[in-house]
């Protein structure tokens, strides 16, 4: 059934004055409840970081058209894939660096700088008039936005052991909401002159820069989050020596004692960490490719196997999926995690995703309310299952290392995941463009091939959640 950490002897609460990490430990010892305020900060900063990643998906098709780089309509998916991948290439190059920095100087400075980079470079992307400028701003934004590694470590460190799953699920859910609400913002606010001719003029700044409005709204939200970071407490221990006058707080009672097991161990030789990172990367590759394909598929013409949606309709679909994800996280995820545990919940979610994804291409035969019900249900279910998988693998990563290595471990995960996420949009765009040219093939024609390949990736992910490949930490026994 579920997995539980075995009980450990209570640690003596020894703190160092002036150490922010010790202050957080003392606060957790006094207040045994859920740290709602800190988790709200985590959710807000995560959403602000995630919004720019996917906000371009609903208008990416039109943006490539307006930039005049695709020679034919079928080539648009190819160029869209490269633009979608540029952010993840930048993050791949810098994530490990930001994770190490977060272990050296603290989680908060990296988080603050990352949100600041969103404000600047997301706005610059909105005023891109050339394809090279769009790719460059996205690449730099990905390289400077190093928040993913420290925010995962932070969400663990502000919670007591019994709330660790909740802390990481807040990150996963907020990330998922950002990746879903982002396209909603892009879908409703991109090309405002065409969508709302009574409110916006061709001669206005939004007429000249048709994709600035959604980027500007996201940047303004990031400004609000940036100001709120003033009240964000640091969680990293700032003392290193264990001696007469300076004693490091080892753990809370009941916390998995990773310091005793993996302290000082080479992260790349830590197989529980590396196996969970590999599984995590496969699932993020799948989710990123799915997000791009869903947007391209719904917006493409029915003659190419799509649904002929407008960008506004795509935004509405993803907004509803985001709302469903919030409900799932608040009322369903915690009982599921408590009953099944990390690994089994991942396996079950992965297995359920396979028939769900296989159903998408058959929705092209539906219309009206039948299409709406099927598509909205599938989008909500897929978002919930994806959040369960990513939260479970993230928990295993963070339990496999001590706090002193948590930022670097999450940095390695973010680096590897960014590589796979860079492959995701580029591969999905190329696959989608190729599939549109084979509508009458005998073997999985058109969009059926796209979702078939997605399911192959999901099946690989399911396989690696089993032993002997996946190794859970020694203190986190799988029953």
From TrEMBL:
Output the CDD domains linked to this UniProt entry.
MFS_SLC46_TetA_like (cd17330)
Q: Which Pfam families match?
A: MFS_1
Q: Which residues form the Major facilitator superfamily (MFS) profile domain?
A: 38-473
Asked whether the UniProt record includes Zinc-finger among its keywords, one would answer no
- Principal subcellular localization: membrane
Topology term for the membrane:
Multi-pass membrane protein
CC annotations in GO: membrane
Q: Which InterPro entries match?
A: MFS, MFS_dom, MFS_trans_sf
Bilayer-crossing regions: 39-64, 76-98, 110-129, 135-154, 166-189, 209-232, 277-297, 317-336, 348-367, 373-396, 408-429, 449-470
Spell out the SUPFAM superfamilies in the cross-references: MFS general substrate transporter
Subcellular location per the Swiss-Prot or TrEMBL entry: Membrane
Keyword Transmembrane helix assigned to the entry: answer is yes
Domain of life, source organism: Eukaryota
UniProt entry keywords in alphabetical sequence: Membrane, Transmembrane, Transmembrane helix, Transport
Q: What is this protein called?
A: Major facilitator superfamily (MFS) profile domain-containing protein
Native organism: Urochloa decumbens
């Amino acid at each position: 059934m579920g997995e539980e950490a075995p009980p450990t002897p209570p640690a003596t609460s020894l703190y160092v004055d002036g150490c922010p990490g010790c202050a957080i430990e003392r606060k957790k010892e006094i207040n045994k409840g859920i740290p709602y305020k800190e988790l709200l900060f985590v959710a807000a900063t995560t959403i602000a970081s995630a919004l720019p990643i996917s906000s371009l998906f609903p208008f990416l098709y039109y943006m490539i058209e307006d930039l005049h780089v695709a020679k034919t309509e079928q080539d648009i998916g190819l160029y869209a894939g490269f633009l979608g991948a540029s952010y993840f290439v930048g993050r791949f190059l810098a994530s490990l660096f930001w994770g190490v920095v977060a272990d050296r100087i603290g989680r908060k400075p990296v988080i603050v700088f990352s949100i600041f980079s969103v404000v600047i470079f997301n706005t610059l992307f909105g005023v891109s008039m050339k394809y090279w400028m769009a790719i460059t701003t996205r690449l730099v934004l990905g390289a400077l936005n190093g928040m993913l590694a420290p925010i995962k470590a932070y969400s663990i460190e502000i919670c007591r052991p019994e709330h660790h799953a909740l802390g990481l699920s807040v990150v996963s859910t907020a990330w998922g909401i950002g990746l879903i609400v982002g396209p909603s913002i892009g879908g409703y606010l991109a090309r405002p002159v065409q969508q709302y001719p009574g409110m916006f003029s061709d001669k206005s700044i939004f007429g000249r820069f048709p994709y600035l409005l959604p980027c500007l709204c996201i940047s303004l939200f990031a400004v609000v989050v940036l100001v709120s970071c003033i009240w964000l407490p640091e969680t990293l221990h700032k003392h290193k020596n264990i001696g007469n006058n300076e004693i490091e707080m080892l753990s809370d009672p009941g916390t998995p004692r990773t310091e005793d097991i993996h302290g000082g161990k080479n992260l790349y030789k830590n197989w529980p960490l590396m196996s969970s990172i590999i599984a995590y990367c496969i699932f993020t590759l799948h989710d990123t490719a799915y997000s791009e394909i869903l947007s391209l598929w719904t917006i493409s013409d029915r003659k190419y196997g799509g649904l002929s949606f407008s960008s506004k309709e795509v935004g509405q679909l993803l907004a509803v999926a985001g709302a469903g994800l919030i409900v799932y996280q608040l009322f369903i995820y915690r009982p599921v995690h408590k009953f099944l545990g990390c690994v089994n919940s991942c396996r079950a979610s992965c297995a359920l995703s396979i028939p769900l994804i296989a159903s998408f291409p058959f929705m092209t035969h539906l219309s009206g309310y039948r299409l709406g019900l099927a598509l909205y249900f599938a989008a909500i279910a897929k978002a919930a299952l994806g959040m369960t998988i990513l939260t479970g693998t993230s928990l295993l990563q963070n339990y496999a290392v001590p706090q002193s290595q948590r930022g670097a471990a999450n940095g390695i995960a973010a680096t590897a995941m960014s590589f796979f996420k860079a492959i995701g949009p580029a591969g999905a765009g190329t696959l989608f463009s190729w599939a549109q040219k084979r509508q009458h093939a005998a073997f999985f024609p058109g969009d059926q091939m796209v979702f078939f390949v997605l399911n192959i990736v999901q099946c690989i992910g399911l396989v690696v959640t089993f032993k002997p490949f996946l190794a859970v930490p020694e203190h986190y026994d799988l029953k």
